[in-house]
Amino acid sequence: MAAIFISSCSVIENLIPADPTPVPPTPTFMPTATPDPCASENLLEEVEKVQDLVNAFQDVAYVANFTPQTELILPIMEMQAVRRNLQKLDVPECEEAIKTASLNYMNSTINYLSFFMGGETKENVDAGIQNSQVLWQVVLGEFNKLLTSAGLVSEELPDIVSAVPQTTDSNFFVDNDGTQRVNVRSQPNLDADIISQFEPGMQAIGLARNEPGDWLQVNLNGVIGWVNTEMVTTSAAVEELAVYDPDQ
Fold first, then answer.
1. 216: Cα within 13 Å, side-chain hemisphere
2. Considering the domain boundaries, does residue 46 fall inside one?
3. Within this chain, do residues 153 and 46 fall inside the same structural domain, yes or no?
4. d(CA 22, CA 111)
5. 142 and 78 in one domain?
6. N or C: which end of the chain has fewer CB within 10 A?
7. Helix 96-117 to helix 122-149 angle, to the nearest 10 degrees?
8. Residue 127 is inside which H or E element, if any?
9. What is the pLDDT of residues 67-114, one digit of tens each?
10. In degrees rounded to 5, what are phi and psi of residue 21?
11. 40-76: per-residue pLDDT in tens?
12. Under 8 Å CB-to-CB from 198, ≥6 apart: which residues?
């Protein structure tokens, strides 16, 4: 019996290779770091996704403002399609404010055009237009604020913020509560060129003032210019605005 046991062990040993080839180790895969979409080197590409939709909406809205009342349904439907695309767009956290501001502006614009098409009173339509203009200023400000915080130059998005200087943290509004239009000039003096008209009932964002405070720099629907302080009303004391610095 002992001989059989020894013989069996010998057979088993002969079945095992003397120098077995080692099994190669399972490769370890290192996870790839996901790029931060809010980093300055990636931010511009991300912002352009929203910008493209905002510009597409603006193109249709411009045409809609010259479309006969009875034919407004087509541009309104086009604007609704752009708005839905923006709603579905997945944006990083740093762009949520831009997306929200843009959607608010789009909703307001579609609403006043729908009011006009439906035969609403002039007062309601005008109120909708004014609200839309104010919300557009918010859109411009959010784009500029994000780019400035990332150290990017505003001019990199010319269709959105080329005319918008650095935003201020204060909500300073300038209104034309009178019955006559107010000239918006390129410089704070009566000899400067007129670059826009501040219509009655419109609202602008106050950006700065000259040293005496008799002229205010405003952002009126994307146009940056100066209005005479006596011709407008302000939401706060003029002294709360910073004195204009041409070097900034």
1. 30
2. yes
3. yes
4. 73
5. yes
6. N
7. 160
8. helix 122-149
9. 888 889 999 999 999 999 999 999 988 889 899 989 989 998 998 899
10. -70, 125
11. 777 778 888 898 999 999 888 888 877 888 889 999 9
12. 176, 181, 182, 183, 184, 204, 218, 220, 227, 231, 232
Rounded to whole angstroms, the Cα distance separating 137 from 104 reads 11
Does residue 201 fall inside a structural domain? yes
Instruction: Report the chain's C-alpha Rg in angstroms.
Output: 32
What CA–CA distance (Å, rounded) separates 82 from 40?
27
- The residue type found at 175 is D
Q: How far is CA 190 from the centre of its chain?
A: 34
Where does residue 230 fall: left (phi above 0), alpha (psi -120 to 50 degrees), or beta otherwise? alpha
Helix (H, G, I), strand (E, B) or coil at 228: strand
Domains in the chain, number = 2
Note if the pTM is more than 0.70: no
- What tokens does 136 get? 């557009």
Cα 118 to Cα 65: distance, rounded to the nearest angstrom: 15
Task: Kindly tell me if the per-residue pLDDT of 8 is higher than 50.
Answer: no
Residue with tokens 């826009």: 196
Q: How many residues does the chain have?
A: 248
